[in-house]
Amino acid sequence: MPKGNLFSVATGRESWSSQKLSNEGIRLGRPETSKFGICFFPAIKSKRSEGTAMPMGIFRVCLVVITAIVNHPLLFPKENGTVLENTEEIIQKMKEREEILRLEKLRLEQEIEGQEAAQKVLEKAAKVVEDVKEEKVQWDMWTALSMVIFLLIELWRQDFQEGNWQDTGADEDDMAVLGKAFKGVAFPDKAILASFYEKRILGTTGDMARMREMVEGFADDLLEALRSVCNRDADMEVEDCMGVGSMYENWRVRKPFVCDLIVPFAPPEPYCFRSQIWCSGDSFPPDEQGYGTIKVCRADEDETGCICDKTKLGEDMLCLLHSQGNTTRLSSEMEDLLCFKNTQYLDADQVMKWFQIAVTKAWNKISHKYEFDLSFSLLDSPGALKIKFRSGKSIAFNLTPVVQYENSDVYFISHFPRNCLAADLPSSTHWFLTFAVYERRFIQMISKMLPANACHVSCLQILSFLHGKQCSLTGPSGLTNYHLKTVLLHLLQTRPSQDWAPEKLEARLQDMLKFLEKCLHEKKLYHFFIGNGKVPAELGFPIIFQRAEPLNLFRPFVLHRDVYRKTIDTFHEMLRNTSALISEYMVHIPHVQTNGIHKESV
């Protein structure tokens, strides 16, 4: 509405003012504007109303003032004018709110999508975990089943070890599978083997008996002289000798015949030997299996040792047994008792050195009674002695000092004469154990249960002869006569007694060869007594050795491939040359049927 129209501001007043002014005879002129922005119409006096001009002017002034007051913006704000501005602000705020809500919606949608994705991941993970649990349960089931199978196998192995712990391959099917080296080999028949045994081997039995008698008598005299030259208060006490080995088990075939004698000895009073073996509970490395140590102690000394070794003594306390002066004296005494330097362990080298000196003194004392000379024949075998007659003949025998293990017939041996069964000793304080006495007793006991003129010793003699003859042609191998005897001991334990009848010589000899071939192929030949739970109780064999882990005599073949290859080649060559080696000593084969080998039972 235009500001110049005064009556347009006050609604309803324009018609009333105009009419009233018209009735009163006032004529309005052109509107004018004051400095306050108020429009007014100057009155034009008419001739009729000139007398009333004064009152009408006052009225007009008052009307203008009232109109200005009513239309003043401070008293009456323009409400209708602010409505538009507030609406735009509200619309703007609503748009901003809408944008905020839209962003919030997007955020919520993203959160929902994230939660759904996380839920899917959790469900997938739960499924994977469930699958893993199922697989783990299945794996645990297989593991448990495997453990059960393993335990059953272990129990079976222990039972099998206690029984037939060394697989001899006694079944005919096993023997057919084994013995691949026999293919194409012409093995001598029963008649040729029997004739060969009678002509080549049986005739040496009488010579061995006479030689054993002569050597045993001389050894007893020599040891008696040794006791007389030794100081009974300071030197070792020597006991009577015992014969062991092939000469005393009646299967020695190759010359020269050599008697093996062992001489037990003990320390002087008040000392004693306390031995410790590899299977006594303490841990021993694999290369020390089958060995033991011997400690020299006072008989009244506690086995656990002096308490000063386990207790920290004060500065003002002194052990009367192990004081500095007594330690020096004890060390000197231990050296006198053939112990290793600064230890109480018996030294094998010191023992052999002492024994050689003592034997030399003893021979010097009794040499005038004999018409032959005595000397040490081999430098690498300290106990190897040789008797030389004036006629030029000679007799060799081994006299080896040993230490008894507790109250048994197992002995610690310082050195093995000829064909050492084991590698070099780990140290001179380690002693190998020999079961030769029990081996001899076992063969004697089994021989009484076998048929008359059984072929068990014949098989061992023929096999020993073939192996020795082959070694003389191609050189030595890793096999020894002790290995061959161990094979026989295993077969004697597993084969029924009737299988050793004299007419079954050929079959049993082939069994020994095939079993030996199997052991060489597997590089495994167990010691007969160690770990064997079926040793006859009549032998009185120590139970500690029966419960021990089996001792593999072929372990050196695993460590030394060159020796193993040489041994295999020699064995196969021996099989191929069996007929030729036997025929070489056959002059005449009788035409009569040979029913067996007639000899005295061992």
UniProtKB/TrEMBL annotation:
One of its GO terms (molecular function) is protein kinase inhibitor activity. Keywords: Cell membrane, Coiled coil, Glycoprotein, Membrane, Nucleus, Signal, Transmembrane, Transmembrane helix. SMART domains: Mab-21. The keyword Signal applies. Residues 84-135 form a coiled coil. The keyword Membrane applies. GO terms for biological process: extrinsic apoptotic signaling pathway via death domain receptors; negative regulation of extrinsic apoptotic signaling pathway via death domain receptors. Its main location: membrane. It is a single-pass type I membrane protein. It is found in: Cell membrane; Nucleus outer membrane. Residues 457-530 form the Mab-21-like HhH/H2TH-like domain. GO terms for cellular component: membrane; nuclear outer membrane; plasma membrane. Enhances Ca(2+)-mediated inhibition of inositol 1,4,5-triphosphate receptor (ITPR) Ca(2+) release. PANTHER family: CELL FATE DETERMINING PROTEIN MAB21-RELATED, INOSITOL 1,4,5-TRISPHOSPHATE RECEPTOR-INTERACTING PROTEIN. Belongs to the ITPRIP family. This is Inositol 1,4,5-trisphosphate receptor-interacting protein. The gene is ITPRIP.
